[in-house]
Request: fold
Amino acid sequence: MKKFAILLLMVLLSATLLLSGCAPTTNQKTTEPKTSETPSFTGKYIVTADYVKNNLKNSNVLLVDARGEEAAKAGTVEGAMPMTWQLIANMVPKKGEPMWATIQEPKVLSQSLTNLGLTKDKEIILFAAGKNGWGDDGRIAWELISAGFKNVKMVNGGYDALVVAGLPIVRGGVAPTPAATPVVVESIDMTRVINTEELKANYSAYKILDVRAPKEYNGGVYYGEARGGRLPNSINIDFVNLFDSQNMLKSNEEITKMLNDAGFNKEDKIITYCTTGIRSAYFQLILEMCGFNNVKNYDESYNRWCVAEEVEK
Amino acid sequence: MNNYKKYLKIGLITILIATIGAYFVFPSFKLTLNSLYRLFSSMSVITVVAYIRSFGIYAMLVSFLLMVFQSVAAPLPAFLITFANAAIFGWWQGAILSWSSAMAGAAVCFFIARILGRDAVEKLTSKFAMSHVDIFFEKYGKRTILICRLLPFVSFDFISYAAGLTAMGFWGFFIATGIGQLPATIVYSYTGGMLTGGAQKFVTGLLILFAITVLVFLFKQIYYEKQKKNVKPLQN
Reply:
């Protein structure tokens, strides 16, 4: 009798699970096929994986794997040069000190770019890992653009999109070929850049956009920051919200709406920041392509602010 | 016999130290291990598929070794390889590959723990008079493993290591692991991706149901055996 009761209970349980489980499964399938019809992100710094496929043989194109050498060792596009943003950042000060991990001085930057073979005449196409990374491609692009480079692109969908597009994949990228004639960066264009002093001097004029994860915004310390918290009056939109479930950039309209809903308008003076100014550099370029023309990335970002200034929790 | 065990232990410790040493001494080895770590931390099936495919005819072997590697180095997610295998080799071929390589990985973890840690555990159990713990695992270890394997949120690798420390026999562990990981492996291979929403709840629910079923029978058996013990003295 007992056995029978248990058996009955099990049958009932599995039946309810089956019923509750089946409906959403079918729903999921209908939502799956998309990609082609949905509007995709467009902008002057964005190219598709197919564009890369068609231009890979072009000798003027320099494909850069912004995920760096370690990631490239586990697979990258044939011919891509791996590098990290640190190679063109000022890593001399210690973390938390002024100007740590910011754009290098023009002289130093010129040398770094020469070593990497990143010349102004080339079309530099960067790719990284979308929302699974830190926007490393955006950070490098943002710095190159600020250094006066005119032909810098990022691949929508990053490495995975290039794989899906059928580009040849190899383990390990190619080493940089230093430029034959030295690259000369005369000055940094500060249109897209801001640092602590300038930000502090005119703080109330800006709307502050924190692009870190909510757990960071809410005070958690995950990446060795001196203390948890956020910039006063900042509003949080997580970097990963720029991407859809397929790890492609959301459309310009969708991103614009997301910003508007959070209280940012196109004519506002906006400051993006994150822990070190990487994700927020990516965010700055995306906003610029959406028509937000007064956006600056706070280069020193939270790592410096939390040491030098008051934070909100 | 004792000597043989000792050599085994020394051998294993040597391998572990050599691996750690090599990581710091040889930059290329360090780069390879770091790149594997990056591969998994990408959390992208496409990235893992591209990596395995890049080995051409050795793809299957590399996938197998990768699974064993991720078993030993616990924090890496195995399901990425399971999905990738299904995408590359087809769902049922992928399922066989994922299942068998996970079995090999579980066996490696089990033996590492057994060789390195069982002695210490034995000492502890005898010291604190916890022999009943050993007896429990000898008797019911198989079903305990089966329950753990069915539950998708219990760490696969942790259980393999933990089982190696108990008194249970290897074959019991191995068979229970094989049966227990079968449903999840098949489902993951067939769907070829992370289940979301209702489908995920459904599969998790089903697996929990299986686990509860086993648990109920386990309790029943323990209960009956206790009853028998209690009854005997009365009869005498």
Q: What stands out?
A: Chain B touches chain A at residues 31-32, 34-39, 42-44, 46-47, 49-51, 53-54, 196-199, 201-203, 205-206, 209, 213, 216 (CB under 8 Å). The longest helix of chain B spans residues 197-235. The mean pLDDT of chain B is 85. DSSP finds eleven helices and no strands in chain B.
